[in-house]
Predict the structure.
Amino acid sequence: MSSVKGEVEIGIIGGTGVYDPAMFDEVKEVKVYTPYGEPSDLVFVGSLRGKKVAFIPRHGRNHTIPPHRVNYRANIWALKELGVQRIVAPAAVGSLREDFKPGDFVIVDQFIDRTKKRVDTFYEGGRVCHISAADPFCPELRRIFYEGALKVGLNVHDGGTYVCIEGPRFSTRAESKLFRSWGADVIGMTLYPECVLAREMELCYVSISMVTDYDVWAEKPVSVKEVVETMKRNTENLKKLLREVIPKIPKERSCECGFALRDALV
């Protein structure tokens, strides 16, 4: 790890279907030991158009880890240990709105936590931390990725509320309709606690939500074939977006994410 520590600028935590080492040049597989156990996989460190990037497949390279069993603390800690200051987190989601269509991208700006049994802080004793989650995502990264998505011709929505459920089961129709009544826009299983753990580490974090289908509120039967085809299209579009945006992310941060602990520690 010593050969790459401090060199890495950007971390990517890839969701379903995103893992593809061919996206990067000069890839190394790096083992990072953490106080919280093993990350989801080895960390893949490489270059993307001149930017040093560390990539972790959230569910493991063979997609063997369900969302409720992901070691979110280990993943975030490992990226921080490598020197990462910014995290880009793509994930597949279902839509809770008619106008958020399969194939669309959403740069979410809020979340609702409906998980039940996930460890969601690094501060479990010795010191108390009340991290602010009022605006949980980096405004600078959100703007850069929204503008980049427009440039490469994606159907993208600027802002949205992601409701994160425990999983691994999907919602009932009653739950889905309830989440719609709350004003939630998309639904998934992996955003929380990943984003707040990044905030506790004073890392910038942006979620790139890729809509694969309508959630069950819509009562529109969706075949597995349709979901797989949409995910494949989304993944190719995500690669275009990453190639466009990653080189343009400035090295110096102009946001407040790096000072998230300033008023949070008791």
